[in-house]
């Protein structure tokens, strides 16, 4: 797949099955993340990989976080199984530091670009992925249970695996319709 084909056809894969990215594919995915644009070279990111038992551990983090705020049982049961929707989930964290020239937003954007790069690297290798967040990406108990700081920001849970079905490529939107000349 050439670069423009990747950029013009990338899409998400909500239905993912095993196998997960193998070690070599995962290495490529993580290396691609480090190609994200990064003002001042802060590498403001951390990638927390969950597969096999790790998926259940991530589900337990979600359960404990929701129990701590008194969520209803249905929601808790659903959250427990959320990471099981793929054979691998990478929690992408923006590790934000105080910097005189690089505000928090730019560090969070860099981590977001890393998510996109990882999804593209998965797609280019014939794998599938979907970038998810939801309220748990902003839940203080999740941060504490994952050993994160209050200054950190979870920018995504990147679900990765093998596409369950071969989905048709979605229609491309006309980029020009969102543009104007100054
Ligand atoms: C920051 C961010 C958070 C997202 N969170 C969710 C989410 O929690 N659940 C979801 O179904 N899609 C979420 N999406 C959207 C999907 O990743 C995906 O882009 C969308 O379903 C459109 O599909 P496409 O990527 O094939 O165009 C999120 C996207 C971004 C950029």
TrEMBL record:
The keyword Ribonucleoprotein does not apply. Its cofactor is FMN. Binds 1 FMN per subunit. Gene3D superfamilies: NADH Oxidase. It comes from the Bacteria. Residues 20-161 form the Nitroreductase domain. Keywords: Flavoprotein, FMN, NAD, NADP, Oxidoreductase. It is an enzyme of class 1 (oxidoreductase). GO terms for molecular function: oxidoreductase activity. Pfam families: Nitroreductase. FMN binds at residues 10-12, 35, 39, 131-133. Its EC number is 1.-.-.-. The keyword Flavoprotein applies. Belongs to the nitroreductase family. This is Putative NAD(P)H nitroreductase. It comes from Shewanella pealeana (strain ATCC 700345 / ANG-SQ1). The lineage of its organism: Bacteria, Pseudomonadati, Pseudomonadota, Gammaproteobacteria, Alteromonadales.
């Amino acid at each position: 797949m050439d670069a423009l084909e990747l950029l013009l056809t990338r899409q998400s894969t909500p239905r993912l099955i095993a196998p997960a990215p193998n070690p070599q594919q995962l290495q490529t995915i993580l290396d691609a993340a480090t190609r994200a644009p990064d003002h001042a070279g802060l590498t403001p990111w951390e990638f927390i990989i969950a597969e096999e038992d790790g998926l259940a551990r991530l589900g337990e983090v979600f359960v404990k976080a929701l129990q701590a705020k008194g969520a209803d049982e249905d929601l808790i049961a659903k959250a427990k199984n959320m990471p099981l929707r793929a054979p691998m989930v990478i929690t992408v964290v923006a590790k934000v530091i105080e910097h005189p020239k690089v505000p928090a937003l730019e560090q969070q954007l860099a981590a977001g670009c890393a998510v996109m790069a990882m999804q593209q690297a998965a797609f280019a290798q014939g794998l599938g992925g979907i970038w998810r967040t939801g309220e748990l990406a902003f839940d203080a108990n999740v941060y504490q249970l994952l050993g994160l700081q209050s200054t950190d920001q979870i920018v995504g849970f990147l679900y990765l695996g093998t596409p369950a079905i071969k989905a048709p490529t979605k229609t491309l939107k006309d980029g020009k319709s969102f543009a104007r000349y100054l």
